[in-house]
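seq as requested:
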Amino acid sequence: MEYADMRLIPTSMSLRARLAVLCSAILLGCAMPAGANDSSATLGAGGLRFISQPDVVMEAESLTLTPGLVTVRYVFRNVSRDDVKTLVAFPLPGIGAVDDFNTVILPVKDDPVDFVGMKTLVDGEPVKMQVEQRARALGIDRTEMLVDLGVPITPYLARTRAAIGALDEAKRAELTSLGLLSKAFGGTQPGWKLFTTFYWLQTFPAGQEVIIEHSYRPVVGTTLSPPVGLLVNEPETVAAARKTYCIDDAMMADIDKRIGAEGKPGEYTYFGQELEYILKTGDNWSGPIRKFHLVVEADKPSDFAFFCLDGLQRRSPTRLEMQADSFRPWRNLKVLFLDAHKLEN
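struct tokens:
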């Protein structure tokens, strides 16, 4: 078997085998230690969250998902005769310690608070947000305990590990018993997750529209190679991948043509990128979204985008689109991008 690169997908595999390698590595994540350095986890974020407001309707939502940026534009209207002031929040997904076997690639590596580069505008003006960060282990808030010990609550920082190492053995044993520390790969690492929420108070004037625009860089899961020992010709694996991402025969044939089949040289190999978007938790306004527009688009013309949703239309291999009236979010979105890399034949 010939490899264009030892970290890439074999160019001489059959289409079914290659798809099994590509998709099941994402589906299985880091469950298998072998090859874990070649994959990273996805952290599913979503849009803004609101306190339930029966007097505020969502006139429109435009959502665009790409591997490098999520953008949302909301149009709200206060249908009452009084101004409505309410809390608006954007919770980031919980994040734990990072090591060679539990890799999360953060879009913004040098900011322990905002690791997704979030930007929010209200009627075209930047929003000054407050932030709350909490450390939780086994579902219990342990923020104050860590702060009192002088341990930074951001679990993936080198200085956090250094502070843990400076604790005496009895204190480390206590933290371990509370789930705050764990033994892994010959060492001790943080066992808690950090939960960050940005929030602000928003006024919706009586009878008026308010436009909120929101963007951030998603934490995308990436796989470069399959877990060792995976049966790449396993039909059930291929079927599960196709069902999860709605990959039809025509698109599989297109992938096969680009990768190369039946002894013909391929032009590309592909990395898998998975993006999760939490859509269904945002339904706290009055009634459905009156006009909903969704675009999913890959980065390059040689890439692919796949996911499943009723009413979705494929505009090209790289672009999927949906428009709906009176839309109610009922499920979260799980998108697969195939990131093309040109082969040197």
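The first strand starts at residue 45 and ends at 46.
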